[in-house]
Amino acid sequence: MKKTITDINVVGKRVLVRVDFNVPLNDDGTVADDTRIRGALATINYLRQAGCKVILISHLGRPKNGPDDSLRMDPVAKRLADLLGADVMKLDDCVGPEVESRLAELPAGGVAVLENCRFHPEEKKNDPEFAASLARLADIYVMDAFGAAHRAHASTEGVARLLPAVAGLLVERELERLSLLVENPRHPFVTILGGVKVSDKIGVIDRFLDFADAILIGGAMCFGFLKAEGIDVGASKVEEEAVGVAAAALEKAKSTKCRIVLPKDLVVAGSFSAEANTLIVPVDQIPEGWMGLDIGPATSAAYAREIQAAHTIFWNGPMGAFEMEPFSAGTRTVAAAVAEAEALTVTGGGDTVAALNRYGLGDHIDHVSTGGGAAMEFLEGKELPGIAALQDA
Length: 393
Prior knowledge:
Rossmann fold, single chain, six-stranded parallel sheet
């Protein structure tokens, strides 16, 4: 376990908080989805009430060659100010004498948003001098960006080695909830994995085979498993290394108590389009040139039954191309089953969250993880650099 902001004296301190404000923006530059900003409010408000100077740092998007006006933090700071009902100081850089001078003017309980840390290439390189420049801004460092905790960058790991470093309330909740999945989970434990890439999830599959009861496979990643079983998947999208990875997982499953459950039927189409002709077919009867774009109704019903019988559920990845209505039924059925289950329910991954929000079910899940990649690496048993650098409780 790691220390959190409630374990140390933060009163009146300058506190640098690494948040995950990597939010989607509308065409007009406004924030399209403020879920990640809202996720940081508990930590921000705790620190404000303690009279701290709250200094927030985050990345936004993937700037390639230094500053990019389309990826500045101004709209994020504006949305945060709206949510807090208070002024927020927005700075035009994240390090340097001018930043230090402006922050000296920040009042107790005040909030400042630094500029996009990835405008500096030293951030991703975890440059020691850049990390030291960040450390000069504060007395205490708080990691509250779980979605970036698996990156050893200057603002996530480097600066944490230079200041007293603890977890924020969001990260504390993430670690507590995700730990419930791997430390004596209640059975039956059902894992639902979808999305495109088997390779992104093989570590979780390999680990969950040791203690889950069933792994339900959907999305494009199912085609690697179907091909590994000798089934012709037509023009369905198959990751190059997927078949070998899937075959290894299926072989390991034979020596465990965990079942890998594959679709029995699919919604297929002649092209990747909402206007394409569609059919519902058994998995071994995909017409030549057609592609699977959703699990079929029989599979959806079978998966829902598995989910309803579970006491612990982890879901990552949609069951199909749910953003197009003809291919959304599988994901919708699974989402509803997870939301209605009398179980500990944990979900993660951007597309999974988007699906839950699309169907208005996000509030019915016990824990919606803010970090897809970080959550998967944590569940695989990997050490997250941004967490490892924090003080032990």
